């Protein structure tokens, strides 16, 4: 399968090089040719190139990084909370809690994706992480398993609007990366790939917070609702409260301290030339650049009405032309397989480590969460390697993703045959390393 996708992508790369210039990493491509007099987005990009990389982009990168951290906290926490909360509530199917989360993520991704095109990036960007913080903390007060599922689903709904794949600017990208990419000079595009390292940081932070809380404030292994009371099982609740407060602080920092202007490319695509010019000049001023844009540099064009029909046409545009259709099919197929593999591995990892620990070690909760934290820290470095590899001409994004996918597959297959506790930990670390490295290339 990997070879088929790689060959398809390689032929696409050859087509791009011989027929049209391929988009650089970080460039938001327009269906209108870059040299077309109607392409205001191309003129905005030229302005960003003239301004260059500076303080505004670095602050924006930090703000987007908060989104990645919050997103991964939400995902990592479910695998840490689920085993502990199930002791207290004794549900028939404990692992279905992850289904509530992914259902919320799916609905949120579609909803916020279209909303970001209708009302802009800035408000959607700010509301998403705020919603995650409120409903994550609220989940700590759950008195029943059904209530916990509801709060997890709502928090995930807002999480879907933060760092999950969205439909924006006729590209399947994430809102955080869209905001960052639309203000980024082309040659700095590798930062889009490297930014994903913060997923590993989010997992590590969540694991380090959960580790002492679960060990000291949760019911022992093999406990049931008959022997595990709320008072004896407060650890996972403390975790959700701390994560909620942490996300709230990040939302306040990125809204009131770091801040951002509305995306100039989005404004230009809406026909708001005056606001787009103001946004560009704000970026220039923050970067202490001498560049100034005037409204005369942008072409006046009619504003398209945003409705269900235009949204449908936007989706259709993703599948126009043989090369585009093939690329979209490959990307959708990759994300489909990732969507299956990720929860099967990540959500059930603590269950596997705990169960496997009985055979490979002492099976203690302490070692289970220790191993989780170690593998999370190792995963930080995968996207950093990817950000370097995608800049190598021979590898690019296509061969880099193939290399990372094979690495992840080999380590995952080997994981089923481990004989010692050290082997289990080492392969768990390598799986997370290659997994995040592969994600980084896809998102970038």
TrEMBL record:
Main location: membrane
PROSITE patterns linked: MFS
Molecular function GO labels: transmembrane transporter activity
Name by which UniProt lists this protein: Major facilitator superfamily (MFS) profile domain-containing protein
Species this protein is from: Penicillium desertorum
Alphabetic keyword roster: Membrane, Transmembrane, Transmembrane helix, Transport
Places the protein is found: Membrane
Entry's Gene Ontology cellular component terms: membrane
Highest taxon of the lineage: Eukaryota
Topological relation to the membrane, as annotated: Multi-pass membrane protein
PANTHER family for the chain: MAJOR FACILITATOR SUPERFAMILY (MFS) PROFILE DOMAIN-CONTAINING PROTEIN, SYNAPTIC VESICLE GLYCOPROTEIN 2
Record-annotated membrane-spanning stretches: 60-81, 93-115, 127-158, 190-215, 235-257, 328-348, 368-389, 401-418, 424-443
Claim: Ribonucleoprotein is one of the keywords in the record: no
